[in-house]
Amino acid sequence: MKKIGIIGAGAIARVHADRWARMPGVEIAGYYDIVPEAAQRAVDQYGGKAFASLSAMFDAVDAVDICTTAVAHKEPILAAAEAGVPMACEKPLARHLSDCYEIVEAVERTGTPLFVAQVVRFFPQYAKAKETLDSGALGKPAVIRTVRGGSMPRAGSTFHSGYYADFNQSGGVILDVSIHDIDYVRWCFGEVERVFARGLMNAGLPKDHTLITLRFENGAIGHIEGGWAFPPNKFRTRVEIAGTEGLLEWDSLDRDPLELTTFDAEAGADVTFTSLSPLAPEDDPYYAELAHFIDCVEHKKPFRVTPYDGLMAVKISLAAIESEKRGEPVRIAEFSA
User: Fold this and answer.
1) Do 39 and 63 meet the contact criterion of CB atoms below 8 Å apart?
2) How far apart are CA 298 and CA 259, in angstroms?
């Protein structure tokens, strides 16, 4: 039985706790939160105990799951690294790039496993799209386009609006929402050379929306749309990957299967439509990413998302924010913040 300690007792901690509670061979040992009452409420719902300190938790668990806000990730990560306790950490790895570098240095120096929970890599549609791309079915990668957005989180909702509206805390829609797609497109197409973004962040409006263009080192192009300006109750995600031999697409508003369009050489201009459905009733990306974390720790396997991946997702996101401010492209290799 693996004993898991959860650090932070907010909204994403509840999402993770629900999955841990359903996972065979796992026990939630308890919670630590800077607000003791919040930790106790989580204990009342999911069991375990409320720990008075991080060190007390580290002595009682096999691994920790860090679910604080991004600005509070660094302290527990560095403490767990020094204690040698394997950890999963909710995205983004940190709010500031300097913290990301400090985190990566610490886990590399101590050899402590750190998994960054970039959950989109575990959504079955997105994982299948990456698998199809890697198979060569699309030919040489050319363009990748994603959409992710909904309405601004409202007071009283599971994810409270106050945090997201505070740019210094959340990093706005780019660092909180579009970072999912930034990580995913980098996973698919490789390193990013430069980024250009336009959006509403500095428009003085209560809603945030962004359009990001990426130029990859291999010459391919990425387009990312992210927003909190969509109609209420219409959260939408979309992915399109185009290569020299075909187009793959999926939209959460339309259908569950992936749709692959390929050129039929024998038929000339005709195309073939192939349905690729990776879905099963029990599929759940949050469960999948946490199960992956445990499996990798137990069997000493590499994580699907490394600390460096987490750092680069933050770096590209912050570069996109800087591009919005400047109104010009930002080269990733030259960017520091």
Assistant:
1) no
2) 36
- Give pTM, 2 decimals: 0.91
Asked if pLDDT for residue 116 goes beyond 90, the answer is yes
- CATH T-level topology, domain 121-285+314-334: Dihydrodipicolinate Reductase; domain 2 (3.30.360)
Helix H or strand E segment including 291: helix 285-299
Q: What is the CATH number of domain 2-117?
A: 3.40.50.720
Distance, in Å, from the CA atom of 253 to the CA atom of 148, rounded to the nearest integer, reads 11
* DSSP symbols for 185-242: HHHHH--EEEEEEEESTTTT-SS-EEEEEEEETTS-EEEEEEESBSPTT--EEEEEEE
Q: Note the pLDDT of residue 21.
A: 95
pLDDT of 145-163, one tens digit each? Answer: 999 998 877 644 555 557 7
Instruction: Measure the CA–CA gap between 188 and 327, rounded to whole angstroms.
Output: 27
What dihedral angle (degrees, nearest 10) is formed by the CA atoms of 265, 266, 268, 270? -90
The pLDDT value given to residue 262:
66
Peptide bond into 92 cis (omega under 30): yes
Domain ranges of the chain: 2-117, 121-285+314-334
Q: How many CA atoms lie within 13 A of 319 on its CB side?
A: 24
Q: pLDDT tens digits, residue range 6-25?
A: 999 999 999 999 999 999 99
Domains 2-117 and 121-285+314-334 share a fold: no
Distance, in Å, from the CA atom of 294 to the CA atom of 284, rounded to the nearest integer, reads 16
